Amino acid sequence: MSPESTGQNEHYLTVFRREFRTWRGNRPFWAGLFTMAGGLPIAYFPYANMHLGNVTLAMSTTAGAGSLIIGVLLVTLGLTMWFHQIVRVFAGVAAILLALISIPIANFGGFVMGFVLAMLGGALSVSWAPAQPKALTESAEDSDGFEEPAKDQAAPAHHGDESPVFTSAPPTTGFHGAAAYPGRQPAPYDTAADADGGRPRA
How far apart are CA 95 and CA 78, in angstroms? Predict the structure, then answer.
């Protein structure tokens, strides 16, 4: 085999594996697999025979037809989980009920093996949910982390016709207790009035 053909085969296998991973992620794959695997021993053991030397042990019972029906239904539900995942919840609940019914009917649920696999597959099918697109997830995170900017705490609050009331601390005072507003200067202090006893000059 030439190196070129080997590289082409690896390329096709890589593409197939990527496509299979995408197909598997869009459906409850493991739920369907476990459900189908649980239906096989339930349907097989009632019709199987064990050979111990020259002795043949038949495990078939009067409920062999019921075991076959339960096994076929479990395999069908597993395929439904794969190719029609919109009814995954119904298929999961049905698989759990069939697994419980198989305990008294199908040799303790296929010697407990089929019972455990079917219960696990049904539970996985009920709990499975499709993943959200990455773009929607990022936009939701950005909207959750957005915070409005803090408003100016010194903005005056008007109450009808009254003068504005400052919500923050009052401005610092300037000369002789006058408010230090920009553009406003305190009145000059008349020293001559104090010298004449407080009377202003003419």
Answer: 8
- The full DSSP string for 22-52 is HHHHTTTHHHHHHHHHHHHHHHHGGG-EEEE
70, 73, 78, 81 alpha-carbon torsion, rounded to 10°: -130
Question: What are the start-end ranges of the H helices in 26-161?
Answer: 29-44, 64-83, 88-105, 107-111, 113-127, 134-145
What mean pLDDT is predicted for residues 30-52?
A: 88
| Distance separating alpha carbons of residues 198 and 193, to the nearest angstrom | 5
> 63 burial class (0-12, 13-18, 19+ CB within 10 angstroms)?
middle
Average pLDDT of the residues of the chain = 74
* pLDDT classification of 111: cutoffs 50, 70, 90: confident
How large is the greatest C-alpha to C-alpha distance in the chain, in angstroms? Answer: 146
DSSP state of 74: H
CA distance 100 to 94: 10
